[in-house]
Amino acid sequence: MANTVYALIRVSTEEQNEARQVIRMTNLGILKRNIVIEKESGKSTVRAKYHKLVRKLQSGDTLYLENIDRLSRDYDGILSQWRKLTVHKGITIKVLDTPMLDTDQTDDNLLMRFIQDILLHILAFQAESEWQKIKYRQAQGIAVAKASGKKLGRPKTVRTEEEMKIAKQYLNREIDFDTALALLGIKKSAFYNLLQVVSNRQP
Questions:
Q1: Exposed e or buried b for every residue in 122-157, given b needs 16+ CB within 10 A?
Q2: How confident is the model at residue 5 (pLDDT cuts 50, 70, 90)?
Q3: CA distance 171 to 110
Q4: Which residue has the higher pLDDT, 145 or 107?
Q5: Which member of 129, 139, 149, 186 has the lowest number of beta carbons within 10 Å of its beta carbon?
Q6: Which residues, including other chains, have CB under 8 Å from residue 92's CB and lie 6 or more apart?
Q7: Helix axes of 110-147 and 75-83: crossing angle, nearest 10 degrees
Q8: 152: number of CA atoms within 13 Å, CB side?
Q9: Class of domain 5-126 as given by CATH
Q10: Cβ proximity of 59 and 89 under 8 Å
């Protein structure tokens, strides 16, 4: 029987910060190498990090979640993943925001299992209901923005003549990579994007 302790942290977008959840898990003594962080929507079918974790989990392991919507954002998804982890994989789940769901406290107590099942279904319903409300509000916001003539999406980055000049100097091997970065004061990823823009504009 394995007894490794893991934690699953999920945020829906790159902009969301997972630091609060990481601190909460490390304060429980969970090793950082066993804390899995994924930046995917719970509705996503990809979720490579989550599925890799599930494959790694062995009977007797413990998985910490902040709340059950870390498993999924839809009703059926939460219930199926919960059953897969607890019944088929044989692991213990600890839910920080809902300790009553912790699967290591039933002691084959029929009443406790019954209460947990009811609570799990209620929270799964709430998770999908909240997700549907968020998507509805987003759709309304997009519709209002379009009706008012607002352009959606990130604004295009305006490249200055100086930036273009430095990028051309690098492409022409007049300056090296580090010098170009120092002159521009931007990250490598932004510099690569700039080089792509300059390369596309050159005849």
A1: ebbeebbeebeeeeeeeeeeeeeeeeeeeeeeeeee
A2: very high
A3: 71
A4: 145
A5: 149
A6: 60, 61, 62, 63, 86, 102, 103, 104
A7: 140
A8: 10
A9: alpha beta
A10: yes
Tell me the average pLDDT of the chain.
Answer: 85
49 vs 107 pLDDT, higher one: 49
Tokens of 11: 């945020």
Residues with Cβ within 8 Å of residue 5, at least 6 apart in sequence: 29, 30, 31, 34, 61, 62, 64
The domain ranges of the chain are 5-126, 161-201
Considering 12, 41, 44, 80, which one is annotated as catalytic?
12
Q: Mean pLDDT, to the nearest integer, of 75-98?
A: 94
**Could you give the strand order of the β-sheet that contains 5-11, starting from the edge strand earlier in sequence?**
35-39, 5-11, 62-65, 92-95
**Which positions ≥6 away from 183 have C-beta within 8 Å?**
166, 175
Instruction: Identify any residues that bridge with 92 across adjacent strands, giving them in sequence order.
Output: 62
Distance of CA 136 to the CA centre of its chain: 21
Would you call 12 a catalytic residue per the annotation? yes
According to the model, what pLDDT value does residue 44 have? Answer: 61
Q: Which tokens in the block code for residue 92?
A: 């213990």
